[in-house]
Amino acid sequence: MILQALVKYYEDLAEEGKVAREGWCQAKVSYALNLSKEGKILGIVSLKQEVPRGKKKVWIPSPAIVPEMVTRSSGISANFLCDNSKYILGIDADGTNERVLECFRAAKEKHLDILKDVEGDMAQAVRLYFENWIPEKAQESSEIKDNWENLTDGGNLIFCMGMEYAQDDLYIRQEWNQSRNVSAGVPEGVCLVTGEKAEISRIHRTIKGVPGAQSSGAALVSFNAPAFESYGKEQSYNAPVGKYAEFAYTTALNYLLGRREYTFQLGDSMVVFWAENGEETYQDFFSMAAEPEPDNQEELKGLFENLKRQGVIRVNDISLNPDQRFYILCLAPNAARLSVRFFYEDSFGNILENFSRHYQRMSVVKPSWEKREYLGTRQLLYETVNQKSKDKLPIPNMAAMVLQAILSGSRYPESLYTNTLIRIRAEQGNVTWGRAGIIKAYLMRNRKWEKGDNYMGLNEASNETPYVLGRLFAVLEAVQMDANPGINATIRDRYFNSACATPAFVFPILLKLKNSHMRKLERDKAGSKIYYEKLLTGIMGKFEAFPKQLSLEEQGKFILGYYHQVQKRYEKKEDK
Fold it and tell me: N or C: which end of the chain has fewer CB within 10 A?
């Protein structure tokens, strides 16, 4: 299913001319060797372009459509018309050696074989170049000597004559396309992707752009040991994919990973997404829903409102089809291969509706300084990790599972809830609005807490004992803070965790401490004392006795009660 969706996406991209056709690929090219008709090097043309990177500008190779490049591991295998200095010039940073010369000989043999009967000045120039170039005498060429470091830095080199590039020559293109169709001894079979009989691809091209994977690329389909093979079918013959399908899916996936605006990293995973028809506007809307930015919160709110009221996807003057099929693929590095965390397909309207429901469940009262309406997936996961740690990555599997749960509207992973509670305990009761939102969303979705809609803010009518106890703890803390302005540590720092887990053991101690604070308020702030006494009387009347223990579910409600009461206190200060 994954490969079929990517092949379809490739075909849509190819129709629009955004990707190379079969037999061709997009490569990053650094320099071109400018040849004369006699195949001599007249000069070196830099093809690098200057682009902004943060606060500075850097020079990077330019993209170019070149003949399809081979998949190389450790062996010697030459590309046609585009390769590094070892194959094109027979040199590397240290000069030349037998290994480098073998690379050049492989390239020479390939070019002379393909171009032997090709007409035109360009083909003749490339032929003569390989026939006459002597790598051992490269230093004698002033053009090569003056650009030695640049040419041998590992970047790709191509050929040109003036402003004309070899890969664009009509005669050469025709010969390359014909030479690819000549194959001997290549097994045929039924392609698992297209369902048609075709030549089966032995090795699939690598996928680049997944952080943590090898920089040269990693394979999505690969078999490298007998344990993974069956019926004597080695390498990728064990999962027969035709050459066309292999080229199409790898091209499409590399294209997606190369467009950073349509990908985002989630923990150790990379998430890519696309619409079946290839229209990029759907990707823009999905990116806005999954990772809201401070400047598009109102747009997203309007999008969800339109979807809820009218069943349409519209922002400003842009309207999209809710029934459009949409795909999300989550990949993680696994040595020289890629691991699929999950693959999700649904209509675009359903995906947005599930995002809307998730954000509604996450909705809680926020501090006055908070300008965000929605907490994106990555920001949500950051709430489960130590913000002071150098490594702020969430648990790898959990990150992907959370996104999948949001997309499908299914239950959140239990680890999201437990890790949020662990983080709150580790920080002695530091309950941010994001953490409160996670707890509320989890209880509503996983524990069927139907009353959760009534707990966006303080619910003074609630009689749920854990929630009321959380409120009580917040009020006792407020009494202490009011009686001792500027205090460095409160009862939260010492008693929050135990009060949340074993109320019967802790609250009697806290009530005794409260009496001394009340006496101080009676001397200095009589009005505050009366206010707190009324508030405490109302809260204490909502339960009969302190429970000995609270379950994990009840601890979540305790934390919510504490958070809501604290926010109410700050709200009152702002009103004054």
Answer: C
